[in-house]
Amino acid sequence: MAIFSVVVLTMPLWLQPFGAAYPDILQKFVIFGVFAIGYNILFGLTGYLSFGHAAFLGVGSYTAVWSFKLLSMNIVPAIILSMIMSGIFAIAMGYVALRRSGIYFSILTLAFAQMCYNLAYSVLTPITNGETGLQLAKSDPRVIDRLFSEAGEGLPSTTLFGIETSGYSGFYISAVIMIIVFYISLRIFNSSFGLKLKAIKANQNRMRYLGFNTKPYLLTAFVISGMYAGLAGGLLAATDPLAGAERMQWTASGEVILMTILGGVGTLFGPLLGVIIIKYFENIFSAVNQLDLHSFYAIFPTWLENALVAISSLFVGEGWHMTLGLLFMLVVAFLPGGVLEGLQLIYKKFTAYLANRNKNTSTQAETKQETGANHGE
Amino acid sequence: MDAILIQLLNGLDKGGAYALIALGLTLAFGTLGIVNFAHGALFMLGAFCAVTFNKLLTISKSVKDESITFFDAYKDIPYLQIWWGDTGATIIDFAVPLSILFAVPVMLFIGWALERGLIQYFYKRSHASQILFTFGLAIVIQEIVRHTFGANPIPTPAPEVVSGSANIGLYFGLGENIIYPWWRLIYLSFAICVIGGVFAFLKFTTFGMVVRAGIQNREMVGMLGINIERRFTIVFSLSAVVAGVAGVMYAPIVPPDFHLGMDFLVLTFVVVVVGGMGSLPGAVAAGFLLGVLQSFASMNEVKEILPGIDQIIIYLVAVVVLLVRPRGLMGVKGVFED
Predict the structure, then answer these.
(1) Please, what's the b/e burial string for B193-216 (b: 16 or more CB within 10 A of its CB; e: otherwise)?
(2) Which of A123, A95, A97 has its CA nearest to residue A110?
């Protein structure tokens, strides 16, 4: 755990050589990390595939921005409120959706999330500000802040008791929160509650025969993962006080599923790994353009260079989604356990290979000794 | 009254599209047991078949425009028109209906290639991994289309004869205010014909009989010495064709762009679940039902009472139906139940 915290907090240092050590992407790593860790508690442990988690992310963002508008620019009330609100939403959605399992559950959660998304765009415009997205304004009341100080010039920025929450400090604040929630999820994984969730995934009927009512456990897992998503939404709003409805679209749920699967479902570090891989390559790949490619392939003859550029331009820049789709297909097809499983496989192969080699060399040495002994005779 | 009739037509029209896509999806579920998230992409591919065919027909030659004498002006005249004169022009005009002839073999091939090349390896995997794999597939197809055709919607006009509106009210003596575009009426009747065709195919041919038997008990049919796998491959191609022709005919209604498929996918999945997994009549009925409900909900009178209802009606109905009738409207027992 301590090693993990150190690794996360020193991310700005060791990501330097990869060109990913600027605050914007680092914040994305940890915030989506929170989202994926939470999603993994539901999908990884219970096997219930929810397509509705984007709704919680959106609810969290909206709540946080409203808290900035009405109460205070401090992020503490914003984050607490966004967790509470998304928790309430999760209780309502989970209570209904968890009556069914399998694909019906997926469709029900999808239906709920799409309802939230469509409503946020149309009728709820007074609350969500529709397509423009909810923004801060100078004239907002900010009741708590007003108790302590007069309204200053210009737009205030989000703070944590005076520390600004954008840039690197934003990253560190989110990183600390992520480490805390990671620790909580670690405890959940190792608790008897987590064991029960795993049992539900393995065989729900048997659980029922053993006299467990599985529903409360499922609902708790659903609400916890919903609150994680709300927290992620709140953090997104805290680092950049703007909330738009597109965060609630079902493709956003698809993205978190991608991250979880890519890294490794049901493992502790897998989702985090998936987040880092996807967000990192998204940044790199979508920034590459034709010129970069030409200079990259410059050593080849012209015709080959042009052909290579034509092929690879399919996958970079705008075509980044194509890479993502292909990657996703490959992972689902060949590595159902995600990248983490792949790494473990490689590690096992490698150690087996090492062990084999040691054995071979030692047996060779033995035979040599024997032959040497024979020669001696 | 007139408004209600028009909304009914609107709903049936939309429902026709839902029903066609949902029918293909259900065919794939029922036979192969595969949850195909790439089905919306197949619909979109169909629409782009129409676009491609239209482009092929209008490959043009630059010809000097004789009517302008002040300077050298050039205009593009399609080769077809140069070769065959007015006949060529008519063929170009009818590009969309004609492209069905083009789309059927193409979609048949795509469906076959997808099933044999990729999807057949996923029969024994869990539904979650089927969903995820076909979701990735859908993204890839979508991106290929965007790369080739660009991100903007491509207008594909209907033939000029039917581009106007029909005054149905006059024909049936219901008053003069029921005016409805011809092409949408054609789409509705086309949808009904295709659905009828698929049902007849399954009901009255030997092939259809084997397939229906295979849906009920796959092992038994296999034991009787019938190669059921091959027939299911054909059924999957058929479902791709149904989605494809639905897409072709939809192109004049909404200019196709690359995320047309995703827009429909979510809705049709809801339709299939409401109709009941694995039930073909259920899928069709739910498609029309939800289409009609959606268009009634978008009437101003309804919106005044319940604001926003038009946006969520489909999902709301889905939630209510699933909670009241867990298997959907006409769900078959034992399909997709864990």
Answers:
(1) ebbeebeeebeeeeebebbeebbe
(2) A97
Quote helix, strand, coil % in chain B, to nearest 5.
70, 5, 25
Q: How far apart are CA B334 and CA B338, in angstroms?
A: 9
pLDDT (tens digit per residue) in A307-350: 777 777 767 666 777 887 888 888 888 877 778 888 888 888 88
Q: Residue A29 in contact with residue A283, Cβ under 8 Å? A: no
For residue B48, give the nearest of B197, B259, B233 by alpha carbon: B259
Contact B109, B46 (CB under 8 A): no
For residue A65, the distance in angstroms to the closest alpha carbon of chain B comes to 23
On whether the CB atoms of residues A328 and B136 are closer than 8 A, the answer is yes
For B268, the closest chain A residue by CA position comes to A107
Whether the per-residue pLDDT at B336 is higher than 60: the answer is no
Sorted by where each begins, the domain ranges of chain A are: 2-249, 290-364
CATH topology of domain A2-249: ABC transporter involved in vitamin B12 uptake, BtuC (1.10.3470)
The 3-state DSSP class for residue B22 equals helix
Question: Using a CB-CB distance cutoff of 8 angstroms, which residues of chain B are in contact with residue A314?
Answer: 143-144, 147
Sign of CA dihedral A254, A256, A259, A264: negative
At A168-226, the pLDDT tens digits run: 788 888 888 889 999 999 999 889 998 888 888 888 888 888 888 888 999 999 999 99
B200: Cα within 13 Å, side-chain hemisphere: 6
Size of interface A-B (CB pairs under 8 A): 111
Q: Where are the domains of chain B?
A: 2-58+96-324
Cα dihedral: B282, B283, B284, B290 (round 10): 100
CA distance A245 to A116: 9
Which structure tokens are listed for B282? 């259920």
Burial of A263 (0-12, 13-18, 19+ CB in 10 A): buried
- CB within 8 A of A115, min separation 6: which ones? B311, B312, B315, B316
Assembly ipTM: 0.76
Chain B, nearest residue to A44 by Cα = B128
CA-wise closest residue to B158 among B190, B196, B192, B184: B184
Nearest by Cα to A251 from A324, A201, A196, A151? A324
**Does residue B150 sit at the A interface (CB-CB below 8 Å)?**
no
Task: Please provide the size of chain A in residues.
Answer: 377
**Exposed (0-12), middle (13-18) or buried (19+): which is A105, by Cβ within 10 Å?**
buried
- 3-class SS at B8? helix
